[in-house]
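Crash report, auto-generated. Payload:
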Amino acid sequence: MNIYFQLFATFFKIGAFTFGGGWAMISIIEREIVDKHHWIKREDFLDLLAIAQSLPGILAVNIATAIGDKLKGIRGSACATIGCILPSFLIILTIAIFLTPDMIKNNKVISSIFMGIRPAVVALIVAPVITSAKAAKIGWKTVWIPFIVALMISINIGFISNPILYIILGALGGWAFWYFSNKGLKGVSK
Amino acid sequence: MNIYWQLIWAYIKIGIFGFGGGYAMLSLVEHSVVDPGWISETMFTDIVAISQMTPGPIGINSATYIGYVAPGEVNPELATPIFGIIGSVLATLAVILPSFFLVIYASHFIRKHNESGIIKAIFSGLRPVVVGLIASAAILLMNNANFNPNGVTSQLIINITICIIAFALVYFKFPVRGKRINIHPILVIILAGIAGYLIYGL
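Recovered output after restart:
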């Protein structure tokens, strides 16, 4: 079978059967690509994963692009990427066509179901706040950052509530801290 | 400006600045699609629920759904499946396009700088921000539209209770057949939907 089609089919299958995205998808991608198809070695996979993580965007899609590129250049990555996103695209499109905002609002059964679901969705987002704070090792020195970011974005007033501003500031802050502490070290060693 | 260009531009921005995974992207998505009036706050919450229950990353799911709905919400003449499908194709491609080219053309650059420690440093600055981004998505959704749509206190109390129980279910580990496991979010959404039907639908 053609390698382009195989790339497409493998990532189509991964996209169709993994719920939740992110890390759940990564372990399945590793199993398919490294263990089953032997397309790349495990250390190469980990290298691609490190790159995919360092770039913005959707992690699972990034890794599909990186593996396609590694195997067959830009055409390979187009096949892998489209394969990865097509299942969710088709499923959501079908839902969007049949489950319109009007229907959610006006159908009594559906609207009552969503009235129960909405508070639960909020809870689903509160939980990763705590787990990500633990994973990021937020301590007394850094705890003010998430507080300020969450406060400024939630007050929702124009430019200062744009999340992009805080993403740029966070990246710049990390870079500046690294730059100046490196400079300091060099000064000491001289 | 044409709604399609606005959609493409919004989702390219989400693709460029979407660091930290699906939940961290949510406040960026909400900021980009609720503020211009493409969808309501409750619709945004519903899309998050639908994304959780269907396979695939939340970034793709939201782009597809919002791309479909937005043209019709902005201009009633565009509220047909054809214009919706065009919107969802454009938004979905727009959200993956920046990282597609970055992965192909910037991996050499990333590999080089990974060793110098600068990438690590940038992410150490981003990590606390990501926690704040997820928190802001949660706070933005703790609104009247989701908790008290009809201004009835008893409903507000019921909805807060649903939220607290759902949180406990996903956050704490429960003993099942001798093992301590987390309840899957899909199960929590299904249970909340059943509760909603029993409380509000009958």
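Post-recovery validation: Helices of chain A lie at 3-17, 23-36, 42-54, 59-98, 101-106, 108-135, 144-155, 163-189.
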